[in-house]
Amino acid sequence: MPADCDSCVKMLKMDHDNINKFMGLSLDGPSIMKVWRFCERGSLQVSVELQAFGERSWKGRLTLKPQSFVT
Predict the structure, then answer these.
(1) Exposed, middle or buried, 47 (CB in 10 Å: 0-12/13-18/19+)?
(2) Where on the tree of life does the source sit, at the highest rank (predicted)?
């Protein structure tokens, strides 16, 4: 099995509350797309940017969970 396929299989098997779930690959179309679980509260990057500008409430700051970026 190629190394890339091995990595995808490992990511599919990972399941933890603090890790955004990798759902698979879409091979339709001109490029390969990675498919990740939807992040209801947005990405960690957006949350950090909002917090830097004071736009996130204290309740929102306390409930922030790390989430992976969608690529």
Answers:
(1) buried
(2) Eukaryota
* 51 pLDDT above the threshold of 60: yes
**Does 41 fall in a domain?**
yes
| Domain interval for residue 22 | 3-62
pLDDT tens digits along 31-40: 988 888 887 7
Cα dist from 68 to 15, 20, 28, 41, 43, whole Å: 13, 5, 23, 12, 7
Task: Provide the b/e sequence for 48-61 (b: ≥16 CB within 10 Å).
Answer: eebeeeeebeeeee
